[in-house]
Amino acid sequence: MFGPKEAEGPLAAYFDTCLNDEFWGEKTWEKAESKIIKESISLAINKSKIPAESIDYCFAGDLLNQCISASFGIRSFSIPYFGIFGACSTFVEGMILSSILTASGAATNCLFATSSHFCSAEKQFRFPLELGNQRPPTSQWTVTGGACGIVSSSGTGPYVTHATPR
Question: How many domains does the chain contain in total?
Answer without folding.
Answer: 1
